[in-house]
Specification:
This protein is mainly alpha-helical. The chain has helices at 26-35, 42-69, 72-85. The longest helix has 28 residues, at 42-69. The radius of gyration is 19 Å and the shape is elongated. The chain starts with 25 loop residues before the first helix and ends with a helix. Bound molecules: zinc ion (ZN). The site of zinc ion (ZN) has 7 residues, from helix 1.
C-alpha cells in the first residue's frame, strides 16, 4: 500500500518522504500515534525508545534539582511525586 510517508508504516514501494519523520512531521506523528507505540519498524522503535530516554533524563534532572536546591517550588514537586508513588 503506497500511502503515508513511509517512516512509521513502510510503503510497498520503499519510498520515505523527506519530511523528518515522527516528531517533526505532523502526518508521521499521527501515523505513529495510531500504532499505539507498537511497531516492527526499527527506525520508529528506536525513535520511541529515545523519546522515553529523553523523558526519563528530564525527570531525573528535575529530581536532582529538587534535592540540590531545595527551593519551595522543587520541594513541593518532589513531595507530590513521592506521595503519588507511595499511594
Ligand atoms: Zn512525514
Amino acid at each position: 500500500m503506497n500511502t503515508g510517508h513511509g517512516h512509521v508504516r513502510p510503503r510497498a514501494d520503499g519510498v520515505k518522504a523527506r519530511c523528518g519523520g515522527p516528531g517533526i512531521c505532523d502526518e508521521c506523528s499521527m501515523e505513529l500515534a495510531q500504532t499505539d507505540g507498537q511497531t516492527s519498524n526499527p527506525e520508529v522503535a528506536i525513535g520511541l525508545l529515545m523519546n522515553k530516554c529523553d523523558f526519563l533524563e528530564s525527570r531525573i534532572a528535575t529530581i536532582f534539582e529538587a534535592i540540590k536546591h531545595g527551593d519551595e517550588k522543587h520541594q513541593a514537586w518532589l513531595k507530590q511525586k513521592i506521595e503519588e508513588h507511595f499511594k
